[in-house]
Design a protein that fits this description.
- Helix content is about 15%, strand content about 30%.
- By secondary structure, the protein is an alpha+beta fold.
- Strands 3, 4, 5, 6, 7, 8, 9 and 10 form an 8-stranded antiparallel β-sheet that branches.
- Strand 4 (about 95) and strand 5 (about 100-105) form a beta hairpin.
- The longest helix is centred in the first third of the chain and has 34 residues, at about 5-40.
- The chain is rod-shaped.
Length: about 250
């Protein structure tokens, strides 16, 4: 028969229970603190290298002349670019004592919108533009190489008194330093035709350039000057123009 528990035993049992309860509480508190510390630690990041995107240049791209050739005046100081698919023939005309510069550029590419470009440079002592070119009033005004002038657009089949069925035509007229410059484009009905615009926008009247004895096509390379500017080839020998200050 088991003897009944004494008061001292009950006291010791209670004391052990309290100790166990306090120990469990401390262990739980320590575990919660540890887990809290772990959750507050920032996880390790994986660094992925980023390739920078190329910078977009917002400045306009200049018109390329890699598919064009340079023509320089033989009796007057001017130049312009014409399509590389065109060949040209010098067909100068003598009128009294005057040598009229006339050049016929003909397309060798059947897919082009232009058939021919006709350059005609003659003296003009009055300095007046024609009032009725091709017996027609001008279509509007046009500035060629900083020189103001006029232009004319004629549809296919217009009557010029020379051809039975002439092609569509666009012509530009300017007067500069006592000469009339007429540039005629056959095969295009609008001055806004891209090929026409490429030719007209390349026109330059430069009094400092030398007159070329024969129409030539110089290389399109450029020379970088000490001040950072660039110069192209010019003159009968296609030599580089002098740098600023030379």
């Amino acid at each position: 028969m088991t003897p009944p528990a004494t008061k001292l035993q009950f006291f010791l049992y209670g004391l052990v229970g309290v100790f166990v309860a306090i120990s469990l509480a401390l262990i739980g508190a320590a575990g919660g603190y540890y887990l809290g510390q772990q959750s507050s630690v920032e996880p390790e990041r994986t660094i992925v290298p980023v390739t920078p995107s190329p910078r977009v240049n917002s400045s306009p791209t200049p018109t390329s002349t890699s598919s064009a050739k340079l023509y320089q005046g033989r009796h007057s100081t001017f130049s312009f670019f014409y399509p590389a698919s065109f060949s040209y023939e010098i067909t100068d005309v003598e009128a009294g004592n005057e040598q009229i510069e006339q050049v016929l550029f003909t397309s060798q590419d059947p897919s082009t919108t232009l058939d021919r470009i006709i350059l005609y440079v003659s003296s003009n002592p009055t300095g007046q533009l024609p009032e009725y070119p091709y017996d027609q009033p001008p279509t509007g005004e046009y500035i060629l190489g900083s020189v103001p002038g006029i232009y004319l657009e004629l549809p296919e089949g217009y009557s010029d008194g020379l051809q039975a069925d002439p092609p569509p035509l666009t012509a530009v007229f300017v007067v500069h330093e006592g000469k009339t410059y007429k540039v005629t484009f056959e095969g295009a009905t609008s001055i806004q035709d891209p090929l026409i615009q490429e030719v007209l926008k390349s026109f330059s009247f430069d009094s400092s350039q030398s007159i070329v004895p024969d129409g030539i096509a110089c290389p399109m390379d450029a020379k970088i000057c000490p001040d950072g500017s660039s110069v192209g080839r010019t003159g009968p020998n296609c030599e580089f123009a002098p740098c600023p200050g030379e």
